[in-house]
Amino acid sequence: MTRYHGKCVFSGVAKGQIKVIENAMASAMQVRAENAKAEWQLLINAKAEADKQLRELFAKTKQEVGEELANIIDVQRLMLIDGDLNDCIEALIKDESLTATEAVRRAGKEFSEIFTALGDPYMKARSADVIDVTNRLLAQLSGIGDLHELFSNTIIVAEDLMPSQTLTLDRAKISAFVLRKGSSNSHTAILARSLGIPCLAHSDIPIDKALEGKAAIVDSEEGILYVEPDEISSFEADKKIERINLEKKSLEEMCDKETITKSGKKIALYANIGEADDIPAVLRNGAEGIGLFRSEFLYLCKNNYPTENELFRAYRKALEAMDGKHVIARTLDIGADKTANYFNLESEENPALGLRGIRVCIENEQVFRTQLRAIYRASAYGNIAIMFPMISSVWEVEYCKEQVAKVQAELKNEGIEAGEVKLGIMIETPAAAMISDSLAKEVDFFSVGTNDLTQYTLAVDRQSSKIDRFYDPHHPAILKMLAIIAENASRNGIWAGICGELAADPKLTKTFIDMGYKELSVSPSYIPGLRKLIREMA
Ligand code: PEP
Ligand code: MG
User: Fold this and answer.
1) What angle do CA 529, 530, 533 make, to 5 degrees?
2) Alpha-carbon distances of 417 from 395, 406, 536, rounded to whole Å
3) Which of 187, 199, 202, 361 is catalytic?
4) C or N: which end of the chain has fewer Cβ atoms within 10 Å?
5) What is the pLDDT at residue 525?
């Protein structure tokens, strides 16, 4: 038995088999190659694997539906071996010193655009082939290409994972995450929490394929990963799993109770979600609404922009499942660690300070309008509100409201029914906190994003594992800002809530309620415990 150590991101105990994902995060983030030869080799390996997969797919398709359709697969395989796309990828690595991932991404974008621009249906289909084949290569390069082989109870071991990569995993089969890097505030950590999957970050486990398939136990309560555990550790883990299940069971009675203090203060205890599929957990844990629907997750695991209808269906599904309860849809908060290739966001020196959040929507009016139309159309099916992320100035809110008015007028003209939709903003920049008095006059509610508010106030990159200890959401500066925000909301007659991870911190629940916060939105699994705590408060 070998022990490795890490920092608890989500507490729990899980048993399973290890799956090692190599170079996932590094290849996803880096643009310039440090070692061109190594990138070349990565490309060769990825091409060989993609070639093998496409040959197998060709044979299967030929057998099942005939040679004519199978030839489509062969077109993709040939694109990889020779031809302009392949030449372009190779030139970008050799001549421009790009990483293999960045070269495939850029070449894929360039060629798919060229084919689409040619207009005729045959060429458009070739554009789809380019996207398909380059995505296959990117999956290989990121190390997540063979994850269809996941066994149930998989313990994922990786350097770090991008949110888009985490979303593509079959989450029903994952019992724990162990990351060498990773910070407690990254979106992958947030995803692990919202799925209720034990997670360790900053771990000392090597990213070594020799660990693949080995039995392991993650005890994130203790910050330990046991590889090939002995009988005693295995027995202890079983006991802990039983205890955790009993604790969960004892909180079940909290699920349909009111969230109210002994003195009668009611708090809306809402859930954070990334997609409509998260709703069973929301309902199981007794959330009174959805306080943060991270709409960008609907974009992250796709190869192209979701259509208005796709977005509409996702919101409608959430509203119908919530059956009249409040659903707050945050508009796209893409950028920084949440990226999708098709947005073609340029690499930036400081992505957290770059084109992200509402700025992406202001720069891409059409993308913004598509979302707003989808949300307004869905509003006929339930109680939906919109909130805008990463606001720092009043003019940005004015811009959002102008777009909303245009969309409302457009839908009315088209005879499409829409319900009433309240408008709110996230307060997650120090600027927004400091001008919250003016911002409150523009909107119906505030929701504080403490994850980013902490990052921007303390000047600590929330993604960086190296400086995790400097990331302190309890810092007096954050608590002062939280008090100012609640005060300005109340003075202007609007409500304020918190939807960052801090909202789930039981040490601060009383402080938040005393400050005047009316809503706390947290990962579903935290709801029963928080409700119990609030009900026991004076
Ligand atoms: C936040 O910043 O606190 C927040 C809720 O948004 P996200 O974590 O998605 O950036
Ligand atoms: Mg945020």
Assistant:
1) 90
2) 29, 15, 44
3) 187
4) C
5) 92
